[in-house]
Batch of 4 targets.
Target 1
Amino acid sequence: MRGPKTSKASRSGASANAARAAPGGAVATNPDEIRPATREVTFPIALAAVLLSFVALLISFSRGYLLLYGDAVAHLGIARRILDSRNPGLIQLGGVWLPLPHVLMLPFVQKLEWWQNGLAGAWPSLICYIASVAGLYRLARYLLMPRWAIAATAFYALNPNLLYLSTTAMTEPLFLALLIWTTLLMVECVAAIRAAGHAVVARRLILLSFFVLAAVYTRYDGWVLGATVWCVVTFTLARYREVWRKVAPSFVFFTLLAAAGPISWLAYNHHFFHDPLDFIRGPYSASAIEKKTAAPGLGHYHGWHNPLLALVYYTRAAQVDAAFWETGFLIMAAAIGGLVLAIRRRLLLPALLLWLPLPFYVYSIAYGSVPIFIPQLWPHSYYNSRYGMEMLPALALFAFLAAQWIEERWSHSQPLVKRLMQPIILLLIALSTVGMMYRTPLVLKEAINNSTTRVGFESALGRQLLSLPKASSILMYNSDHVGALQYAGIPLRQTINEGDYDSFQAALAAPAEHAAYVVAIAGDPVSAAVAAHPEGLTELTILCATGQPCARIYQSNRVAPVPPKS
């Protein structure tokens, strides 16, 4: 397989084969040669990622950071209910969130202790973090010298926001791993097509099929990613028809699997929720949540129907997520410079796929009811700042392409530049990491800021639930505060909830007839049902917390609680 095109300056310092004779007649590889990484070279990088991930897990677990995000609690709840439910099975995969993250947590979340402490979500995320670090290094080796590939990988791997997310049940580590490896496979596939390597092309198409399907089942960005990959591969094969004819079966398989993801999810929503676009316009969609959480009288958030302002908010979030203080501006400028350089010199153009999150999130902010709030911009609060993390691979790869180019330009007139520039930048990366940790990384700060009242409320409610007779049935709406059940360690099959549609609707029509206890949280469907059908219910407790709705626990006079075992 022919390697990717390298810059002129990179080739000028080495022979055409980038090798030289060494003492004893051996051939020594030029350390500045841009060449693909072998498995042996990648192994130490992956091992370093393993060590970093476990250090991050130790810190996050010891400080109680694993369950700060309400979304992390909800992801674990969805994974848990697939088997722990009155109606287990495929229907429990449903909702706006796509199913693959929950399937990956499934083997871990059935252990009650790991569900309660959040480790069930940490294990898959840590594996994805390690895979993404190794994948980024391998991808960087197609574009950068080995020492600059190490610098780019260090910038990515040492990012405190990424390290924190990699200890939670959030979906960003999984999607970043899929984005990086899909880009790497596409780079190798396009290179093999141009080199007429039919066997390599066929294998890469099969692998791409599964990675695209996984991305589609992880986040909606993956739908755009899959479509883009298919278009690039198809366009390239169309220019090399002889290759296309020889890999036709693999290409057909790739096409079928790429289309199967979105089609199957539409069919799933149509079958279980009677609307194929339920994830776009249903009660749990982004637009519904935005309407529910918007402050009265303030109108829409900044960036609504304004792509330019949406671009400002997203790129600013990406900068703050990527580097300490205001050095994110420098990183973004360098990455844009590297992007221009790559396009002008036609360097590894398939790697431009890493920039896909930029247009996707600009569109999502402007037209998809997806606000981003960071303290640097009005309204100076915290919401969805983690979305900027999806730009981290692009910033890492292309910013260091620009740094490599600067070194090449200056090294002829300033020999010390070649010797000192990369070590100095590695030192700056370490200082940025320390600075971000000292000031608290933005993504972690958002989690801490937004979890204060929720965690206190759910733990207090969980303690109240623990005082109820064990194994007694509970009618409760779980979408908003499943963390209370998680805290109490109450199996979800013990509750009648919205995940069991028919039994839940029947219970709402007559709460006292279906459960021994009813938990009504102001504003949820159970609260409305109790207001409409209060007969047969006796109020036991009222629990209110600052910034959270009040919860009322009722006992049914018609369904007896399960007596304690003697």
Target 2
Amino acid sequence: MKETRKPRRLRRDGGRAGYPPLPRAGAGGREWRRHAWRMLALWALVLAAYSNSFESGLVFDNAVVISRDARIQAVTPENLRLILTGQYWSGTTANGLYRPFTTFSYLVNYAVLGNGTHPAGYHWVNLALHGVNVSLVYLLGILVLGAPAPALALAALWGLHPLLTESVTNIVGRADLLAGFGVLAGLLCYVKSATALGRRKLFWLAAMAAAQTVGIFSKENAAVLPGIMLLYDLTWSPRAAWRERAPTYAALVLPLAAFFYLRVALQVHILAPFADNPLLNAGFWTARLTALKVIGKYLWLFVWPARLSADYSYNAVPLFGWHPGEWEDAKALIALAVCLGAALLAVRWYGTRKPLFFFLAFFFVALAPTSNLAILIGSIMAERFVYLPSIGLAGCAVAAIWALGRQATRQRLGARWIALGLLCLACAVRTYARNFDWLDEGSLWTSAVDVCPGSAKTHYNLGNALKELPGRLPDAIAQYEAALRINPDLAEVHANLGLALVNSGGPLQEAVAEYQVALRINPNLAEAHYNLGNALLQLPGRLPDAIAQYEAALRVYPDYAKAHFSLGNALLQLPGRLPDAIAQYEAALRIRPDPALQEMVNRLRAGRK
């Protein structure tokens, strides 16, 4: 006779009868030692997988964030104020990002730890944060899966997965690491507060609010914490217990309100270019179906992370085109079917397989802010967007394996561990190999072009990397031209192509034409005006035009020292313009003092007398 299994009784603390709760602060030393050894083993595995990440340089956006942000170069009251009241990307007012805690962490690296522009220290901090998050995922696994063994498998699979390399190896991925910490720590503190009384309850609520503060002031997607908490309550808490817990959500009001108030006070505006997120210019249903295709791509990359890229901008993910039978459009429809199937499975599992339900819903809740389904953001797709949501995918995998093996024989249980071990080993090897792609700009963008040959930005960035290498200007020009074939409206690409043509000794007229196209698209490119002036200066009879371009560059960027100097040189060639030339040299000296230029100005003044 087949045995009928009774459903597990729910407990008021959010756990289930027979399932161990989170380790208690007052628990016996033996219990904590067992957990500590498991965490140390996880850290060792993660360190081995990322041991070659410390060789990576300031690639991608790291040079802008680390090398060019004066706010992080010294611990001063003024710098602290500027970080707290300024945007994430220093020197711009149109990116719409406010992440002061992330910037504070760079200040600690740069000025407090003395790392400066040496990347190794930043990588160590990133890896340490990821190690902490791996431990938090282990604790979450105990809470949801009910035992240390599957929790260990969950933390190992997630912590070693190569889809996370953009968040860990890429220094600016620290925003995702900190946001992930805020959500995971906040959820665990919330669970602990549910069974605490008196001062202990206040302590855990304060810790939950502090975690939310760290997360939301590090990256905007940490705002999903209340949603994850609600998911946990709806999954396991009885209705009466949920009503008792509802007032604890109020503890999150203060950090969230403070974040949104400061963000609004800064009057930040998101100005995402079409090249970064083509969904911004697409119709409603075209954008949403393409966003579903992106979700399908995330799912596939988690299952088969063989081809990873640092960029998925235009036209790496083609827009849904309403063309029946075309494979790109079929991908969107397949992704829609998968998402609908996941929703049906979640409904089915709600009462019978709660861990699977929780982790499946966790993926979609955590992905919601960056999915482009409800709100269009600055990027169509990025691997760093699934740092937190991928916990849900790893949890589904482990929960499914454990559910299938519940009635397994001892031999099958051994096979289950062997399969999980091989899976984690494959992830670790792929992560180690992926880290080599992040070594420098050349390796990063070469791999990106290989994976996403349809992206204009990958070709452009590879061109920028190649032009810095001896003898590679022809290859850089080829990459710029490839980018323009994909998207001819990229002003910066036209400008860089013009400069590469000049530096390679190509026809000046072709370079001038590229500069002029760039400035028609975007007249506010000060460097393009400056470089066009330099090119015109070499052509017979174009001196007045060169002067006009230098002046245009200075209208866009008045503190452009090189433009002042070159304008002075050009004016010096015209009769009667010596005073104007000297004025331009002096303007350059005020911006950037130079003894040699000062001596030349002194000689010119002496000659006037």
Target 3
Amino acid sequence: MKKSILKIISVILSIALVFSVGCTGVSAADTTELPSKEVIGETVTDTAISGIQTIGGLFAGMEELDSGEAFLNNFLKVLYNMLNVLVEVLVQAIRVIYPDPANWKDVAEHSTDAFLEGRNEYKTAADAGNFWSLGYSSRSLIPDDFESGKYYLGRDLMNKKAEGIYDDMRIRAAVLDDNSGDGAVVLAAIDSLGVTSTDVRAIRAGVLDYCKKNGIAVSSINVVSTHAHSALDTQGVSTEFFYKLFASSIQNLLGLEGNLPFMEAPAYFKQYFVEQSIIAINEALDDMESGSLYYDTIDASEYIKDKRGLVSKEDIPEFASLYFVPDSGSESTYITDITCHPTSFSAGNGLVASDYIYYIDQYIKAQEGANFVMIQGACGQISRDNIDVDTTGMDEWEEKGAGTKFLGEKFGEYIISAEYETELEPIINAHHEEILVTPENSILALACEVNLVNNQVYYLEDGVGIISEIGYLEFGNKVGFALFPGELYPEVFWGHEIIGNTTWDGSDWEYSSLNNSVEGVDVYCVNLANDALGYVLTDDNFAFMGHIIGEGIADEVLSVGKHTGSYFVSNYLALLEDYVK
């Protein structure tokens, strides 16, 4: 906690902005399961009413008072914890006054029509006659009337309308099948900050309808976000917050449903990217051809760093990459789990861009004529390292994207130059479970009340909740992907040791690396899978406005909550215990 006085001032000033920072589709979470299922994980024990910390919690993790600096650090820590309480009280007060939307339902009305549990049986050997097949499709998600200037970039609450297009914003969809008859698996990645479960399920519903009409068996449909920070707003969080705050209160009070007046363009874009995503996945389903599937890992830590300085180069997670080679000799396909923020452009950038993802795609196409799908790993604060690019002779436009082009081409070079010596047997395992997240710090509930995000909210016996999901995919009994609906910090998945067991409240994180959570399988994290619920960090490093605090602590107001890490992980491990037998 250096530069302490400046940070105190920063925190106090930030209280006025807490809603604009916090309403990005996030909340804190009580560890509540769906009513029909066993509650997994421990009940919250170190919080009081709706996430307000107890007196003991305010003073947790104090340093030994052996110096003046230690005293000041402890004082600031208590101050930050108290501010957390203050913000919660303020948000709760607003929530009491603010009317609920008319479309909130009782949890008993929840429908699982667009939820797929995956495959029923975990298989350890390929059935006779199994073989790999894969289909691919990619479509731009930029509307034809983009030049009208009415569409918003999806980054924080900046209300910034897109001024132009630097590269593209796309959905890239791959469908894999082992042809066992148990149904294909869809992996579709959307260049976006995040996609809510409501829109994911709308996409699923369209694909399932197509599959039903065409007799296609599908067991798992996954829509993930690449977390590109300069894509168009797919959630609604960057669209006229103060207008929504006022207009939604009137609409909710009158019991009206539907889109707010003057919000036609954002409503149209949501409909547009959902429809284009359905088309892309359906095209991939029609594009299936047989081939072989290979696997390798990639060390790209040379160009990646943890902005907090907590994860060393040696502990930066490797990429997992699948490589499909069709029997026909047509276009091959790479599916790569990359752990790195796509944030090469500044927050004030007014141009639509998918960042390094676009340049990986272009590089692989230019070098091999191959397809590419990128899925985002547990990125937390993992971002590109400082890249020194020679911009001599470049014009202003080229120079603007020189760094991200360099990074994308380097990643592309790593991907296509990997050995891929491990050939995978045609075996797919897939399983998904629904989970119920209930707002503990009230921010997500307020965001839903204001219509900043369109997550479906349900009334419970005590409070409200949002249904999300976790999942697990496995290919060839060798490589697996753990699917989480938030943006995990790497230590949540890879173990607390990679950050030197740094702790904010003095407690311990009980889970080791999940990379070996299935015996004999290399398991990797997939962020923002089938929902977007903000930061997920280890319980012991949950703190208020961590970017201001510094010292490697994450933002509480941008997190689903203190216990979300353990809640997600415990549910994931329970899913495996039930499925992998």
Target 4
Amino acid sequence: MEKVKQCFLDLKLNRKICAIYFVVLASFLCFFAGYYNFKVMENSTQKIKQYSRQMADVSKNSMEGTLTNLNNISKMLIANTSVQTFLKSAQNQNMAWSKDIMTQIISYMDIYSVVRSITIYDKYENQYGILNSRNDKKSGEDIFRQLWFQEVREAKGKARIKSNLYYYEDYPEENVISLIRIINDLDTQKPIGVLVMDVLESQFMGYTSGSGIESDIEILVLDDQNQVVISNAEIEKVPDEILDNQSEDIMTLTKKIEDEKFVFSSCYLEDYQWRVVSMSSLKKIEDENRQANSSLFIMALLTSAIFVMASMIISRSITSPINKLIISINRVKRGELTKVNMHTGRDEIGILKESYNEMLTEIEKLIQKVVVTEQESRKYELNAVYEQIKPHFLYNTLDTIGYLILAEENEKAYTAIENLGSYYRASLSHGSQMVTVQEEIKIVTDYLDIQKLRYGEVFVYCTDIDGEIAHKNILKLILQPLAENALYHGIRPMGMEGHIIIRAKMEEGCICLSVEDDGMGMDPEKIESILNRREKENHFGLRGTIERIRIFYGKRDCCRIESSKNSGTKISFYLPVEANR
């Protein structure tokens, strides 16, 4: 990395300008392309999710409407006096339908014409059926020998729905949905028969198969065994999260199936344990994004070429007069204070030339003044820095920021600079000794965020602040030394990840500020030596902080240290509330 940095520094100014132009442009284009793709994909996905939810909800409402109508017709049928009388008098052999029963059942079918057929079984399992059309021919299975029929019995007259009990010869491609319910004697409530009503798939969903559904949205209907009953989808795989959902609320998720992303929306019909699933592929959006990326790439190449040409023109207009100034400066090295003579305008280069010529006549005196002024300024700045900050922390942080910049981790470097600026702004606090609890917590968290950039995964931290004391005033810079002590003396020597907990709460009538770690800990002798000022080690300002609090608040018993070897350390400061000002 140092070699790359040095190579860049050694470049001519015009090449540096071109390189910087190119890097800035490339970074902008990459960011723009990434952001564009993200927003387009996000917005398109949200629209598809919304439409998918609407389609699932519409399909569910259609199914519920059909089931409600079937349920109502079936209730009227099983309560019909003629049907009840016929089934009560049924014998162990087939009896002929009476004209009255046929007329009434046909009238119910006329009321709700989507019913393909109505079949009634008596208690001897004799079958009586009426088809919607004379051309209809159906075949099916013996429902009484099916395992699921026990569920119908246990439902005690409530409706259940099953698929493909029967097949219609005129509709070989369509599934058949059947509503089944036990017919009970209205007087004794004992079973006297079974009612089966059939509806074709297209009429059950409220649309004609192959039309009325957008090509991008595919609908699947799953029965109570999670088997696909109705589908217009090429892929009939449903994610487990959908199958496990038992809520009637619409559930939406994005899942990859066979290397293709789909948006799934699911509605659950709790009464019948069936579910409707709408699925839409994101392949079309991804293809459009790839086409857009190709266009962006071509535009990027053209824009880069224009930028490079512009940077060369700009750099040449700057470097040409600067080269003449360099020649004159080289003469100054040999003791020739010769003024620069070249034609310039009143731009920055021209002003620089005039200023340079004026400067040559008094250069020796100005150099001496600059040296003296710089020395005094540096001395004053250093004194101010030593009064407010610890230089080793600043240097290490700047080294870390420099490394992040060279590693092109610009976002982390920017965050570190922000945290560093925030830390010193808060710690200086316009020269005031007091800050709020919330500001003090901000100082220490900024410090720890910077340290995390330096030490990686050595530690993690969290804060716990009582909102009642967040705006109470306290002496500033009392938590940061505790955090330093926890990091450098507690966690780092351990050689493994540690935890730091910062708390601020009311306790024993005081504001209690504490820093706790799970690091190396201390033995009782060391704790006593710190509290009684016999400890010679620095402990990153811990002892000095205790003294500051004792002097400021006039309170000897202001610090408690709870610790034992290899069991962590908790240091707490107890600050009187009435002393805040």
